[in-house]
Structure formats: structure tokens, C-alpha cells
Amino acid sequence: MAVPAEIAARARQLREQLELHNIRYYVLDRPLISDAEYDRLFRELQELESRYPSLLTPDSPTQRVGAAPLEAFRQVSHRVPMLSLNNAFSDEEAAAFDRRVREGLETAEPVEYAVEPKFDGLAVSLSYREGRFVTGATRGDGATGEDVTLNLRTVRAIPLRLTRPVSLEARGEVLMLKADFEALNRRQRDKGEKEFANPRNAAAGSLRQLDSRITAQRRLAFFAYGMAEPIPEAGRRHSEQLDYLAGLGLPVAPERRVVRGVAGLLDYYRSIGARRDELPYQVDGVVYKVNELALQERLGYVARAPRFAVAYKFAPEEAVTRVAAIEVQVGRTGALTPVARLEPVFVGGVTVTNATLHNEDEVRRKDVRVGDTVVVRRAGDVIPEVVRVLAERRSQDAVAFAMPKACPVCGSAVVRGKDEAVSRCGAGLYCPAQRKQAILHFVSRRAMDIDGIGEKLVDQLVDQGMVANPADLYRLTVPVLARLERMGEKSAANAVAAIEASKHTTLDRFIYALGIRNVGEATAKDLARYFGDLGSLMAADADSLEQVPEVGPVVARCVADFFAQPHNREVIDSLLAQGIAWPPVVPERPIGALAGKNFVLTGTLPHLSREQAKALIESRGGKVVASVSGKTAYVVAGADPGGKYDKARERGVIILDEAGLLKLVE
Ligand code: IVH
Hints:
Layout: H1 5-26, H2 35-51, E1 75-77, E2 87-88, H3 91-105, E3 112-119, E4 122-129, E5 132-138, E6 144-146, H4 149-152, E7 168-175, H5 178-190, H6 199-207, H7 212-217, E8 221-227, H8 238-247, E9 257-260, H9 261-275, E10 283-290, H10 293-299, E11 301-302, E12 305-306, E13 309-313, E14 317-330, E15 335-347, E16 350-356, H11 360-366, E17 373-378, E18 385-389, E19 414-416, E20 423-425, H12 432-443, H13 455-463, H14 470-473, H15 478-482, H16 489-501, H17 507-513, H18 521-531, H19 534-539, H20 542-545, H21 553-564, H22 566-577, E21 598-602, H23 610-619, E22 623-624, E23 632-637, H24 643-651, E24 654-656, H25 658-665
Parallel strand pairs: 2-13, 21-22, 21-23, 23-24
Antiparallel strand pairs: 1-6, 3-9, 3-10, 4-5, 4-7, 7-8, 10-13, 11-12, 14-15, 14-17, 15-16, 15-20, 17-18, 19-20
Helix pairs in contact: 1-2, 3-9, 12-13, 17-18
The chain binds 2-(butylsulfanyl)adenosine.
2-(butylsulfanyl)adenosine (IVH) is lined by residues 83-85, 116, 118-119, 123, 139, 173, 225-226, 287, 306, 309, 311.
């Protein structure tokens, strides 16, 4: 049906008006019209679109209603990784951050910082192409997240169209306002459904819905805190980048400020802290970022967090309860963790029944005994912990804790290294607890992703001696599984199919699945990328492992030790013999004359900027690291070098000037 010109014009006008009112409401916090009036405009547009379907555009405000449920979320790799922040927990630590920044920049002047609330929600990345919202993804592991575009399209605070046709990737936090959270829980209660523990969980539960129609019914908010890559025309400062995003219609925190020096940082922490309860959303601290983008770049990153930013967290919530028992848990690496079983208590938005006591020394230092009244604390999503004992309320029969001499699960000797705080069951995979944990890790979603093998099943498989290591999983058959408790033919068949399907994997998943101590997903990816094949990784010694970008001495040692154990090699051989395979990986290894050499830069070079010097070294395969150690090959020093220069001299490291570097590179 042909659309009359005036109708098409009216639809366009309505779309623009609704988008504008969204911005007035979510970005500027100054609505021009009432909710009822907004609804009237909205319905008028809906009617026009249903009468003339050709009017309907994907970025119409009416399209925020959700779509049919998905089977699963698609994985998306982030073009620019989504990093995390280092934390500070005291004024001293915040001041130490500022000191490190000034040392890194080799300046004594107060530094300018952009400061913002730390939103307690979920990080997302929003891609806009020529002003249109095209994809949105969760953070995931920072390298790969989940495609939640359909869900994000239902969030009214997220513009489907920017005010100008620019292409960019905004990053920010999806959250639920406190008032919307209360209302949601009231509705859940009325319907007799489960209430959410806190706004963060409610936001997460709403965003990770395969059925976006459910997301559409939840009121989610969004605040941008940056971009994947800054846009030069937006300005040379982070604060200007955020102003630019606001100008495009993306909400940014009204509480953001620019301050100078450590006094400015601490003042801001106190002012947000004082207003914390009044803010419409939950914050768990404040974030400090060096404002000048050029200085941010100079400071760079350590591991997966920027050196130019830090999160100063608020003190977590505390509550008082009683210790009913102290038990010992055996982890995947054999670490024995004393855990306090508590009388249930509500703290930090959830009911807590267990709290970690970390290790033997901690229990002794805090002198926690069974029967004691204690203060417990829970911060964000971390495991609750016992802060201190209320000694004045201790009763006569309180029982002190002693670390068992034998593993509570397998009875093997408990060992504690000379300089180590952790006691371990030394039995490795012969200990059923460790075996179970290792297998659960192996099958987990981000490892081999074997669905249908949960804790209960692994317990039975290990206890009945059917599975001793991950390779044994591949020998399981349907009739054998079907005989187990709570397993029918169907679930047995599903489990076997999932095991079979897992044989097609990727090298990085396989490395991660092995459960090497200190090797998380991101490190597994780094190792896979660098070595390209398993054989070379298994053959590498600690020194060559340290050449992998992002791998430091501790991780290198763990990896080398793991592959040195004959038992681990046997399990790997038998996994490969079962047909586990992955697509070939082309190794991305630094090549060139400087491969294997670590450099440290300090001071200002006469011609090269720091980035240029770094790029030059890397182009020849060298690695630029932050501080001088025994592994440093060269220190490149310019004018006004910092402490790194002195350290290099003390250690007898070769010191080059710019000319020396250029000669070396040639
Ligand atoms: S900046 C390079 N700013 O905190 C990292 N993050 O602990 C860029 N977060 O994953 C992050 N509020 O999800 C930044 N104002 C804020 C933030 C913020 C909350 C989250 C973010 C990040 C996590 C790191």
C-alpha cells in the first residue's frame, strides 16, 4: 500500500520527537512532557506503523518491545578488549595510585583527573554505525562477550539513533535504578515469584534473558563511561569524550567531575560517599582516570588493567552473626580453605551462610573460634569474609580451630610450603576432591563446554571410580551412564552427545580446560596465539614462556611445572588419542632481531615519542615492560630519567640513549 506523503512525514516527526524526549528524560534529566503524553505519541506512531507496515524502521522507538526468544547468545569478540580496573581500598592506596601516575609521567605537578561514580551494574559495549545502533555485547571475559543486541534495543536509555551519523563504540554500564528495583521486586512478590537479591543481580538477570520481551518489561538504565577508541574530534581529554557522547544522546553520569591532584581525588570520594544513599542508582565506589588522553597512552596498561585509572571502592557492608562450625574445603589445586558456617544473616543485599577464613594464619590472626560472635562483610560479588570476632561476647566453650594434618577428603598428608600461607593436600589428582574440581573445570562452559555434566554426576563418577581424569569422560557410554542415580536413558544420551561434540574445540579452550594454576581464559588465549600448537607450548621452558606478551614470571613457572609432570602429559596424550582436535592456529610470535629482549623506557627522548620508541622496539620483536628486573636487556633513557635509570645502573643493565636504540634497531 502506498503511504501518503503526509503520513510518512508525521511518522518521521513522531520518531524524532520520541527520540528527543528520551534524551530529555535519560540524558538531560529534564523531561519536557509527562509520561502520559509520551505514551500518547508512542501509540500514535504504533498505529501508523501497523496501518502502513512499510513505515516501520528498525530504529523506530516502537521497536523496543523485544523479539522471539533466542536459542543461545551469539559470541562476539571485542575489537578492542574490555579491560578491568585495579582497586584502591583506602586513602593511602588512592594516594599511591596518584604517586605511581606522577612517577610514570615523571612529573611532580598535580595531575588532572576525570572522576566518576563507579556504577554497580554490568559492562556493555554499544556499536553505532553512522549513528544507528547495530550491536551490543556484554563484557564476558573481556576478549569475547555475548551478543545481547535484542535486549539492549529494549532499553530506552540507549538511543537507537544518535543525534548525528557518527560511527563509534560506546562503553558503559547497564543498571537498574533503585526505585525500579523495588517496584520489580514488589511485582515479583505479588506474582509469587522469586525476588532479586539486589539491583545488580536484577539488571544482570534482565539483560541476560534469551527472551528479550522479558527484558522489555524490566526498566533498565544505562550510563556511558568511555569509548573503545577515543574520537579525535571529540577532544584531547576523557572528560571531553564524555561530553561528546552526551551530545550524541548517550547518558553519562551527571556526577562526573574534573579535579586536580590527590586532594581533589579524595574530596570527590567523600562527596560521592556522603550522597551515596540519595543517588538513584547503586554505586560501589568512584573511578579516577588521568584526563589527558595522551598521558593515558603514555602510562599504558599492566596485565589487563590501565595504569592511568583506578577504582576507589567504598567500604563494604557488615553484619553480626554466630559461627556454627569451621569446615575445611579442598579446592581444584588442593588448597585447603577454612570456611565458617554461619547462622544466616542478611548483608550486602543477600543472605549469607558461609564466609571464607582464607587460611590457617588468618584464622589464628583473627582468632576465630566455633561459637564466636563475628562481624561478616560482603563486598560486591566477592565471597563473604569474617572481619573480626567480638571477643567480649565469647563464651567459655568456644572451640579453637586447627588445620587438619590429613586431607579431610582423601586422608593424604597436608603440606604447607615454607613461605606459603596456604596448606595443600599434596595428593593432586589422586585426591577425589581435586579430581572432581578438575573435571568440573574441564567441562565448564568456558572450557570444553560439556553440557549436562554437573556436580552431582561428577560426584558419582569419581566416587564409583568410573572417571579419574578428564580423558576418562570420553570413554563413557550411554548404558553405563544410564545406570547412575538420577540419570535416565535420555539424559545419559544427551551427556554422551555433549561429550562427543566437545571433541571439536579450540586450542585456547583446551589449554584453559587443563586447569593450570594461574592460567585463566585470557592467558590461555595469549599462550595459544603465541605458540600456535600444543607441542611447542608443552616444550617451552619458563624463560621462553616469559617472552609471551602479558605472561610474567609467576605464570611462566606454573605452566612449565604443569607440563613437566609426567601424569599431566599422560592425560593430555590420552585426550588427544580420544580425538580431541582444534582448527590450526597461526602463531603470532614477535619476530625480529630483538625477539626475546625486554626493554624499559625512562625519561624524554630527543626525537622519538614514547609510543614511537615502543612501536620501533616491538616492530623488531622486542617487548617493552614497565619495570627493571633481572630479565631486562636494555633500559632506554632520555632526559630527566626516573628511578628506573638508577635501578638499571645498580643492576648493571645496558643503558642506551636514543641514538643507541636506533643503532641497535638497524
Ligand atoms: S572505566 C579500562 N568507569 O568497573 C577500564 N568503569 O572494575 C574502563 N565500571 O569493567 C572502565 N563504573 O564495568 C569505568 N565510571 C566507570 C565505571 C566503570 C563502573 C565498571 C566497568 C569495568 C569495571 C572494572
